[in-house]
Amino acid sequence: MRKAFLIAFLLFMPVSVGAQNMTAPTRPVLTVDGLDESEGDCERMTDQVRVQGRLGGFEEWRILELLAPLRVGKTESGEDAYCVKHFFRECPKVIESFYFQNGYPETKVEINVSSFTGDRPSLFVRVDASKGCEIGKVTIESDGRVGTWVVADCMPSGEAFSIRENPQARFEPRMRAVLKEAGISNPDIVILPVGEEMTPDHRLRTNFLVFIEKEKSNAVIADIQLAGLYKTRPLVARRELLISPGDRFRPSMLEYSLKNLRQLGFFTEVKVESLSYEHQGKGIVIVISFKEIENRQPVSFSPGIQP
Q1: What is the chain written as a DSSP string?
Q2: Which end is more exposed in the chain, N or C (fewer Cβ atoms within 10 Å of the end residue's Cβ)?
Q3: Please, which residues bridge with residue 20 across strands?
């Protein structure tokens, strides 16, 4: 009898121990489908998610609804919550896919955390949604021998292109092809983005300056000297220049720089005083002379700099 009781006890003891371990109070563990075991469980939870940035016409609540399926549990106070680790990995995929399907292929998503020390960190999701860039106003300057009408249609206003594209690489081949048909085989083309503005549908709209020389020059600008400035700091004038030492010499860019200087309204005269070669023809020295308006107060136009 005792032997039978002992055998029965030994047979049922592992089951009893297992049941005891299963019912013993333990720290609740929340796991998330798709997380690697190396990432551990989802201990850091938060229900504090904010969306900001350029949302491309969508409201914040719409984006938060989009992120609702990423909720994986509840906080200690009972609110629906996100696993921080899982959120960081999946949130950009969800938002970028949504915007791509709605015609915003250039959307970028960044996530910042206000604090990693608290139990409930705040997640700030910044969305920069864009359908890409659009061409705005295009100003074409040339050395006087190339008609601007020849290339005006190469960059039509409103044409979309990616914000990741290099405008020079995108549009220069078109211009070269058109100029070649016009008999200009070796032009020097410079395409400069000069500004952007937000249109009502939140697209980037970029204006361009295009400089075209009929022939490429091998001359390099060695130095740019400013003469006749007494009340205007040289820094103010140099900011208006589109040329600098080390650049290839381009007459159209020099002329446009002079136009910018004249539009400041500080001078009665702005002109190129001389163009000379320095050190046996190794570079061009440009001297620009100014005649300032009389009885004008000194101007610096530079933060922190007093005249």
Answers
A1: -HHHHHHHHHHHHHHHHHHHHHHS--------TT--GGG-----EE--EEEEEE-TT--HHHHHHHHGGGEEEE-TTS-EEEEHHHHHHHHHHHHHHHHHHTT-TT-EEEEEES-SSSSS--EEEEEE--S-EEEEEEEEEESSSS-GGGTGGGS-TT-EE-TTS-HHHHHHHHHHHHHHHTT--S-EEEEEEEEEEE-TT--EEEEEEEEEESS----BEEEEEEES-SSB-HHHHHTT-S--TTSBP-HHHHHHHHHHHHTTSSEEEEEEEEEEEETTTTEEEEEEEEEEPTTPPPB--STT---
A2: N
A3: none
Q: Given the DSSP bridges, would you call strands 80-83 and 71-74 parallel, antiparallel or unpaired? A: antiparallel
**Closest to 266 measured CA to CA, from 286, 241, 237:** 237
238, two tokens: 């140099």
Counting Cα atoms < 13 Å in the Cβ hemisphere of 282 gives: 6
pLDDT in tens, 128-174: 888 788 888 899 998 776 767 778 889 998 888 887 788 999 999 99
As a whole number of angstroms, the distance between CA 87 and CA 206 comes to: 35
| Amino acid at site 37 | E
- Residue 73 β-bridge partners: 81
Stated pTM of the model: 0.58
Check pLDDT > 90 for residue 38: no
Q: What is the pLDDT of residues 232-246, one digit of tens each?
A: 889 999 999 999 999
pLDDT > 90: percent of the chain:
38
* Lowest-confidence segment of 141-150, 185-194, 218-227, 244-253 by average pLDDT: 141-150
What is the number of residues in the chain? 307
